[in-house]
Amino acid sequence: MSKTAFITGITGQDGSYLAEHLLEQGYRVVGMVRRASTPSLERIEHLRDRLDLVEGDLLDTSSLVRLLGEHEPDEVYNLAAQSFVKTSFHEPLNTGQVTGLGAARLLEALRLVRPGARFYQASSSEMFGKVRETPQRETTPFHPRSPYGVAKVYAHWMTVNYREAYGIFACSGILFNHESPRRGLEFVTRKISNTVARIVCGLEDRLLLGNLEARRDWGFAGDYVRAMHAMLQAEEPDDYVVATGETHAVREFCELAFDRVGLDWQEFTGVDERYYRPAEVDLLLGDPTRARERLGWKPRLSFPELVGMMVDADLDALLRAGHHAVRGRIPAGVQG
Ligand code: NAP
Ligand code: GDD
User: Fold this and answer.
1) Is the CB of 277 inside a 6 Å radius of any atom of ligand 2?
2) Which of 37, 46, 56, 88 could cross-link with 95 by S-S, CB 3.0 to 4.6 Å?
3) Which residue among 83, 89, 177 is best mutated to probe the pocket of ligand 2, counting the most ligand atoms within 8 A of its Cβ?
4) Domain at 4-179+218-242: CATH architecture
5) What are the φ and ψ backbone dihedral angles of 314, each rounded to 5 degrees?
6) What does pLDDT average to over the chain?
7) Among 246, 231, 51, which residue's Cα sits nearest to residue 159?
8) pLDDT for res 333
9) Where are the domains of the chain?
C-alpha cells in the first residue's frame, strides 16, 4: 500500500518541489490550502490532478485535527509559515501566530489523533542569526535576529519537546537558504534574477537592493526537499542542518546574474535604505556533515548553476510572454 503524506504550505516554493518528489516516490499527497479570495495555486498547477487539496489553516486547530483524522497520513510535513523575514518586523504577532504557534497547533493535533505519524518541521538557519560559531551546525546555539527567527526557534523546540515528551517521530530540518525559479519575488535572489530579466527586456532600468554584503549559504530547493523526505525515513528522529557548505555575498549573486546576460552589474545596481532590516543576519554558512553521513544527502546544483537557472527561467518567461531583448545577450538554451 502506498504511503500518505500531508503537506502544509503546499502552495509555496518548497511545498511544490516536495509534492513532486513524493509523487515520484509513489506517495498519495494531501496538501492543505488555506481559503483565499484568489487561490495561489500556480506552483502546483502542473500537479493538480495528482494531489488531494484540502482546506485548512495553521491558525485553526480544529481544521488540523479534522484533516489528520480524515486523511490518516503516515508523514506530516509542516512547511507553512509567514516566511519573509522583513515582513516579520512589520507583523511580529501574526508571524508568531503562524510560524511559531502554528507548528505547536499541528503537533498537538498530531499527538491527539495521529501520534504514530512522522513529523517534519521546516526550521531555519535564521535561528542562528547573530552567529555564535562558523560554520553553523546542529549544536550551535541560537541567537535569532528577527521575529521570524524567534518564532522558528519556538517551533523548533516544540518539535524537540514532542519527540522527547511523547515519543513522536519528529524531526527538525534546519535548512539554509534555498532558491529556485519558483522562489517568491520578494526574496533577494528572485528579485535579482527577475529584475535582470526585466532590464534585458527594457522593462526596468535599475535594480535597487539593501545590504549587498550580507552572506548566505544558498542552495537549490529541489535538492533540499530530498533531505526532508530522507529525515523521515531514518531509523531514529533527529535534527539536521541542510546546507551547501559555501557562503556568498548578495553582491556576488548580482554579479553572476548580470554576467549571465552579458551586462555589468555596477551599471544597473543601486542601494536603497528601504531594503535594510532593523537587525541583520550578516553571515550564514552551514555544516551539512550529519545530513551527508546519516542520510547520504548532498546537494547537486552548484551556486553558479543556481544563478544561471533562475536568470534563464525569468528571461524565458518574459520572452514567451512576447517581450524582446533590448540590451545584453540571451544565454544559450533560453528559447523564449
Ligand atoms: P513560501 O514559499 O513562503 O510558502 C509558505 C507557505 O505557507 C505557502 O503555501 C502559504 O500559503 C502557507 N501559509 C502561510 N500562512 C498559512 C496559514 N495560516 N495556514 C496555512 N498555510 C499557510 O515558503 P518556502 O520558501 O516554500 O518555505 C517553506 C518553509 O520552510 C517555511 O516554513 C519557511 O519558513 C521554511 N524555510 C524556508 C527556507 C528557504 O530558504 N526557502 C529556509 C529555511 C526554512 P499561501 O500560498 O496561501 O500564502
Ligand atoms: N529580500 C531582500 N530584498 N533581501 C535583501 C535585499 C532586498 O532588496 N537587499 C539585500 N538583501 C539581503 C537581506 O538583508 C538578507 O541579508 C539577504 O539579502 C537575504 O534576504 P532574503 O532573500 O529575504 O532571505 P532571508 O535570508 O532573510 O530569509 C530566507 O532564508 C531563511 C533561511 O536562512 C527566507 O526564506 C526564510 O524563510 C528562511 O528561513
Assistant:
1) yes
2) 88
3) 177
4) 3-Layer(aba) Sandwich (3.40)
5) -70, -40
6) 98
7) 231
8) 86
9) 4-179+218-242
